[in-house]
Design goal:
single chain, about 180 residues, alpha/beta, Glutaredoxin, 5-stranded mixed beta sheet, two-stranded parallel ribbon, 7 helices, elongated
């Protein structure tokens, strides 16, 4: 084989090797980024701001404060918006009007957690949420929404695979709540 043909083959082989290496590096980086985005195997709960509940929600009998039963139906929105205006730090649990299946189990985890820790959460069904400012942020239910000084600091995302583990068990919900709330 003439020398120019050998040089040509070597050049082609070098290019193929470089392209293969570049492809493998790209795939490795892409896989790593995807792994990080999807949470990895040891997902860390990210806390934007830890909520310190107002005293009136601690050391209670662990009841849910059903806003729609506490005030007249036409006063639900003003009552809730007043909590925000007064910069309260509280927990809002929102569910569908009728819970069954996994949503019913999750509701029991939330109620059990409240009772065991003597905490009171506000409760609303999704029927009312569309009229509230919270609807700009939270659109899927059930959800537990944390407010600090009248602002949402975190909430469980029912439409997110990343939050799924917190819906599946009492321990999962407890882990999420304790990572986000000081009480």
């Amino acid at each position: 084989m003439p020398k120019s043909q050998k040089d040509s083959k070597r050049t082609i082989n070098k290019k193929l090797i470089l392209i293969s290496i570049a492809t493998l590096v790209f795939l490795a980086i892409f896989g790593f980024v995807l792994y990080i985005i999807l949470g990895g195997s040891n997902k860390v709960i990210e806390v934007e701001e830890s909520v310190i509940l107002d005293a009136e929600y601690k050391n209670t009998d662990g009841k849910q404060i059903e806003i729609a039963k506490e005030v007249d139906e036409d006063k639900v929105v003003p009552f809730f918006e007043n909590l925000i205006a007064e910069q309260k730090s509280f927990v809002l649990y929102v569910s569908l009007p009728i819970c069954n299946g996994d949503a019913a189990k999750f509701k029991e985890y939330v109620l059990d957690f409240q009772r065991k820790n003597n905490l009171s959460f506000y409760y609303l069904t999704s029927d009312y949420v569309k009229e509230l400012s919270v609807y700009k942020t939270v659109k899927y239910y059930p959800s537990v929404i944390l407010y600090s000084n009248g602002k949402i600091t975190n909430y469980l995302r029912y439409d997110s695979d990343l939050d799924l583990e917190y819906y599946k068990s009492y321990e999962g919900f407890e882990r999420w709540f304790n990572a986000n709330v000081e009480f």
